[in-house]
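WARN no homologs supplied; continuing
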Amino acid sequence: MNGLDLSVLALLMVAGVALDWLLGEVRRWHPLVGFGRLAQALERRLNRQPGSYLRGALAWALAVLPAVALAVWITVLLAQQSFWLAAAWHVLLLYFCIGLRSLRDHMMPIAQALKAGDLAAARQLTARIVSRDTTQSQETDLAKAAVESLLENGNDAVFGTLFWFAVGGGPGALLFRLSNTLDAMWGYRTPRLLAYGCVAARIDDALNWLPARLTAYSYAVLGNWRQARHCWRTQAPAWSSPNAGPVMSAGAGALGLALGGAAIYDGEVEQRAPLGIGRDAVADDIERAWTLVARTAMLWLSAMLLLSFVVTLGGLHA
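OK structure emitted
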């Protein structure tokens, strides 16, 4: 099992997603939490001011490459011992990397708090998932933040991970998820992180380029196709992120919502480019956005299974 047959890979992908859905996020000793602490330690150690592209590149390599190399080594070792051990290892890696169930677990309580009229709880819950200031946010602001986070993290936590699992099995998913985590931690345009985090941000952009566009296309297929395509074409270029722009503009268009716009960061109002077309978001739209992400996951799994069936059938008739 050094190289994965497509049909086996498809079944392992389904198994990994199913395990995530059944068990949810690991509550204690999550590997990504430990990786985040390592990243923080490296940043404290290596990011001496003024920032340096070279030190940022070194930190990325020290954080990501040993972990991925170890995952590859274990994969090869287990494949030499047992097909089933290697299969279980791939599924376990995908389970640790993917975050479909955790998206629902973090977002649905916000919708429930808003429906119950508990604005204070909704503000606290939203503050846990976004970097903007939510202390004065109203229902529309909180619903908009949650929907935007769902659409963007659907790509980062789910579909990008599935794409790279399809490319490289468990180690491929791990490479993407660790790179994406470093971008989330270091990829800010602040004086401290602008140079240091640049390499992490550009690597994440490269790894995420194709998955993000497949995600945006999937959102469009499962929602308002014409509106999603229009928003993607006209609004995505205004966003500084080459991947978040297509994903969120297409998702907002697919849902028929007006997202983007003003948000408060560090006490200052930031006017962001608009996303989507339609009405303002409300509590029910958080559930609609979650449904879009969940349906997209089912679409990707179905497409992978269908592709593996067609390839296998073609091989039998060759």
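Residues 6-316 form one domain.
OK
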